Amino acid sequence: MNTLETIEVDISVELGAAIMPVHHLLRLGRGAVIELDTLEHDPMRIYANNTLIAKGEVQVEEGQLNVVVTQKVIKPAGH
Question: Which residues form the Flagellar motor switch protein FliN-like C-terminal domain (predicted)?
Fold first, then answer.
């Protein structure tokens, strides 16, 4: 068995982010709207173990939400 096939990686996808005081967060209820720092057609950010590796877009297929990779993020040499 190939060793790489047994390594697990935590993948997360970020639609956007917001900064708000904790007291605002505690007041949120059902139906609350949180304004994010992204626009409608901005790419989602894809992270592997909290490191940005790619950008992508959402697709819905048969009720299943998918993220399609549209761009790899390449880190500069030496980082």
Answer: 3-72
In-domain check, residue 65: yes
The gap between the terminal CA atoms of the chain, to the nearest Å, is 31
**What would the pLDDT profile of 17-57 be if each residue is shown by its tens digit?**
999 999 999 999 999 999 999 998 899 999 999 999 999 99
In angstroms, rounded to a whole number, what is the distance separating the alpha carbons of residues 57 and 67?
A: 5
Q: How many domains does the chain have?
A: 1
Domain of 9: which CATH number?
Answer: 2.30.330.10
Domain of residue 54: give its range.
3-72
53 CB burial (10 A radius; 0-12, 13-18, 19+) = middle
